[in-house]
Design goal:
The complex is a heterodimer of chains A (about 325) and B (about 525). Chain A is about 75% helix and about 0% strand. With about 325 residues, chain A is mainly alpha-helical. In chain A, strand 1 and strand 2 (about 175) form a beta hairpin. The radius of gyration of chain B is 24 Å and the shape is globular. Classes of the chains: A mainly alpha (about 325), B alpha+beta (about 525).
Chain lengths: ~325, ~525
């Protein structure tokens, strides 16, 4: 177990290092941030001074080395645009994104898995067929379009729900949360629904496929033959057996919602990390881009570890360990 | 969500009572496209940050909605000889914490503005004319300038004045947190999160008259569609940068009012008028040729090939005006005689033939696709128009973060972009874009086509070296005449700034694009 965690930690560190280098080179290749940031009528001397001050006149490897040195001491650099430490800027916005991602993932689990079970268990019934057909919509409609339609319908025409921002927030442990106020919850509904839609469809499909695979197996038939109550068969035997692929996908999906909620965040003006990263890319704010991607890599590493640990809980045959697999 | 009915109610109440119309305790929410990067007035010179900072801080001299200089914290200014300008400061003005505003604060600001650490767009350039600033008494400032030029007046309009007592030793973080954000402006700072909401509350003692709104929230809404949706749903009372595709829809809406004015941004086509061989122009068979843009007739032909009216009509949906120079009609030094080129493809073809290119040539036109109104589509349209006169034109558009570094690196031959004469003077654009690129003297810093004309240089320098604003205007107009009759660059159109507000709200549209909370009022 300890060996497993250490191994994962080392792997994670290697990925973070490789990623920072790739991003550094990538952003460097796009061009000179000073061209974007400076006032266009600033004279050439000012431009040079700014380039020098930001350290952008140095060769790439020197810039990278300086970054690594600072990063090892916990300093991920200061945003060119905001003059605020990049790490701080990102962490400040993380609660907003996490809140959105958790809500969307919970919605997807609570709606997607039950519907998937129904679709798999009663597959010949009309409602099972319509659930399946409906999931195609969830897959194929682009997020930004659905977001705009949600805004138009519930915000503009019906005027039921607010369409931008987080609304009122409450500070808990120094972090602002909006799911603790009624106004905040109202603000959360539309963007979370928008994010959840695709995932609901995905979970319906996955659950259904799992159910179809497990149902014909001997132990289910045997359980049925023994006269065990159908509800118990589903909860004890079917569900538990389809959980492993589901947990994997839930983990990955949660990670990608956190990392790439860009579209939803910008349409609903949700002040999260996605909105920050897209603006930072537009302005070539390299410290923020690099720091953001590093945070995301770390998060994925953690999620994967959690998923692996859950495997062991769900399936006694799975053992965690280095080489003795 | 503040609904329309509350406002209507408030409006009715005011109408019936008909007393103290400014005492309405209404609130307002403003949706802006570009968020401020900092609440430190001197951290980075970006027009969008300046607009929000200006809600809290005043300048000595301000620009009104049509870019004309107007008194703010300075009530009058005069050249008293020897390169010294005397500014009389407004008396009786207090900071938001009640302390009186004096000349000390101005001198402190001049010290602080150019020296903010880590600034990617430093304020030093606006104080480069100041040799020495002194305060003979509490309400007078003497500024000795380096060059005989009225430029200092325009530069002073860029520098928000901060208080000495709150700002001494204050860092950018202190201004972001509100600790040092004590201004003299129409609103007091309440809170701000980078990329989040700027909350303001009214300054009841504002020298320019208190706002009718008790509190104002300014929220960044970079996505065009959601900004418009926020207005339609009543979540925002005013939005800026209305996209052309929503303009008709909003105009037809009875609950929405539209406020617009020409923009300081003028779009134009840059041409490589310098190199013998330019990277993106070849003969039709792909072989290398001498840069045809060196020939004035070819440049004129390109200008005649552009159907400006069609672009404004179809791509900007009417939100633009054809341009024949960089400066706009209300700017100091606008040249009345310069007309936009007519659309005349026949004459364009004749000029090409005359210049020795009867069959045209091949070129690639570059442009950004997320910077200006309809920019990607405009580049496409331009290419078709150039192709129509026999110049086979490919188009390459890219995000502005890729485009600008490449354009400044002189990788292109013909490219589309815009210049914002934010100071409202013609010499601003002449110096920035059209003067010969001179690293030592700091001329032509954005001259990416490297046009060079001694007449333009000489006249522009002369314009920047006189105390007489009228003379400066005349000289720059003359310089512009030389540049644009030579087709140094091809001006296309002035953009329009469009705001939309819910009924009951009125916004004073500004050419400089700034969305100011104080510009928002209640319809009477």
């Amino acid at each position: 177990m300890i060996a497993f965690l250490i191994q994962r930690l080392l792997q994670g560190a290697a990925v973070v290092a490789a990623m920072s280098l790739i991003v550094f080179i990538g952003v460097y290749a796009i061009g000179d941030p000073v061209e974007i940031l400076i006032n266009p009528d600033a004279d050439q001397a000012t431009r040079e001074a700014v380039t020098q001050m930001l350290g952008l006149d140095q060769p790439l490897w020197v810039q990278y080395w300086r970054f690594v040195q600072a990063a090892l001491q916990g300093d991920l650099g200061t945003s060119f645009v905001f003059n605020i430490p990049a790490g701080e800027l990102i962490l400040e916005r993380m609660p907003a994104t996490l809140e959105l991602a958790v809500t969307a993932t919970l919605m997807a689990i609570l709606i997607g898995i039950p519907l998937g079970l129904i679709a798999g268990l009663d597959q010949e019934r009309w409602y099972a067929k319509s659930i399946l057909a409906g999931s195609i919509l969830g897959f194929s409609l682009p997020t930004f379009w659905v977001g705009l339609i949600l805004i138009l319908t519930f915000g503009v025409w019906l005027n039921w729900l607010p369409v931008f921002g987080r609304g009122e927030t409450v500070s808990v442990f120094g972090i602002e949360w909006s799911f603790l106020t009624l106004d905040g919850l109202a603000h959360l509904v539309l963007p979370a629904t928008n994010l959840a839609l695709f995932k609901i469809a995905l979970f319906i499909r996955l659950t259904r496929a799992g159910v179809r695979e497990v149902l014909p197996q001997d132990f289910i038939r045997y359980a049925n033959a023994m006269g065990i109550h159908p509800a118990r068969v589903v909860s004890r035997h079917v569900l538990k057996n389809i959980m492993i692929p589901l947990v994997t996908v839930i983990g990955i999906e949660f990670g990608s919602v956190v990392a790439f909620a860009v579209v939803t965040e910008s349409i609903f003006n949700w002040p999260g990390m996605g909105k920050l990263i897209i603006e930072s890319i537009n302005r070539l704010d390299r410290p923020v881009i690099v720091a953001y991607l590093m945070v995301i890599v770390v998060m994925f590493v953690i999620i994967n570890v959690v998923v692996d640990l859950l495997y062991a809980v769900l399936d006694p045959r799975v053992r965690l360990g280095g080489s003795n697999r | 969500m503040k609904s329309f009915t509350t406002l209507l109610g408030a409006g009715l109440a005011a109408a019936t009572l008909a007393v103290a119309p400014l005492a309405l305790a209404a609130d307002a929410t403003i949706g802006i496209r570009t968020e401020p990067a900092s609440m430190d007035p001197h951290f980075s010179y970006v027009a969008t940050s300046k607009a929000q900072v200006t809600n809290v801080f005043d300048t000595l001299i301000m620009r009104d909605k049509d870019l004309q200089l107007a008194p703010a914290l300075a009530t009058s200014w005069e050249h008293i000889g020897d390169g010294v300008w005397e500014l009389k400061l407004r008396e009786g003005v207090t900071w938001h914490d009640g302390q009186p505003f004096t000349a000390e604060d101005v001198l402190f600001t001049f010290e602080r503005a150019p020296n903010v650490p880590n600034s990617p767009a430093p304020f030093g350039q606006f104080l480069s004319q100041v040799e020495e600033a002194t305060a003979p008494d509490d309400h007078t400032i003497h500024i000795k300038t380096r060059n005989p030029s009225p430029q200092i007046l325009f530069d002073l309009a860029e520098i928000p004045i901060v208080s000495k007592h709150a700002g001494d030793g204050a860092t950018t973080a202190d201004y972001n947190s509100g600790k040092a954000t004590i201004g003299t402006g129409p609103f007091k700072y309440v809170s701000w999160q980078p990329g989040g909401t700027l909350k303001l509350t009214r300054n009841d003692d504002y020298w320019g008259g208190a706002s009718p709104f008790e509190t104002v929230d300014v929220i960044g809404m970079p996505n065009d569609a959601s900004r418009v949706a926020a207005l339609l749903s009543g979540d925002a009372d005013l939005i800026d940068a209305v996209p052309p595709e929503s303009y008709e829809r909003l105009k037809a809406d009875d609950e929405i009012g539209i406020f617009m004015t020409p923009d300081v941004y003028t779009t134009y086509v840059f041409l490589d008028t310098d190199r013998e061989v330019t990277p993106f122009i070849t003969a039709k068979d792909g072989s290398e040729i001498k840069n045809p843009l060196l020939d004035q007739r070819v440049r004129e032909a390109l200008s005649l090939a552009i159907n400006r009216e069609a672009i404004i009509d179809r791509l900007l949906l009417g939100l633009g005006q054809p341009a024949g120079q960089l400066a706009g009609p209300t700017m100091v030094g606008f040249n009345n005689e310069l007309q936009p080129s007519p659309y005349d493809p026949a004459r364009a073809k004749a000029l090409l033939a005359e210049a020795g290119y009867p069959d045209g040539f091949k070129m690639t036109l570059q442009g950004p696709n997320n910077r200006y109104v309809a920019d990607g589509q405009i580049a496409q349209a331009l290419a078709q128009m150039f192709s129509a006169i026999g110049i086979e034109t490919d188009v390459e558009t890219m995000p502005s973060n890729v485009f600008f570094p490449r354009a400044s690196g002189r990788e292109f031959s013909v490219f589309f972009l815009a210049w914002g004469s934010a100071q409202g003077t013609a010499w601003h654009g002449l110096r920035g874009v059209l003067m010969t690129y001179d690293k030592e003297k700091g001329y032509g810093p954005s001259n990416r086509g490297r046009y060079s004309n001694p007449n333009v240089d000489e006249l522009t320098i002369a314009a920047m070296s006189t105390f007489d604003v009228d003379e400066a205007a005349r000289l720059s107009a003359e310089a512009a005449g030389f540049a644009f009759r030579d087709f140094a660059i091809l001006p296309m159109h002035y953009q329009m700034n469009v705001w939309a507000a819910r009924n009951g709200f009125v916004y004073e549209p500004r050419q400089d694009q700034m969305t100011l909370a104080h510009g928002l009022t209640v319809k009477d």
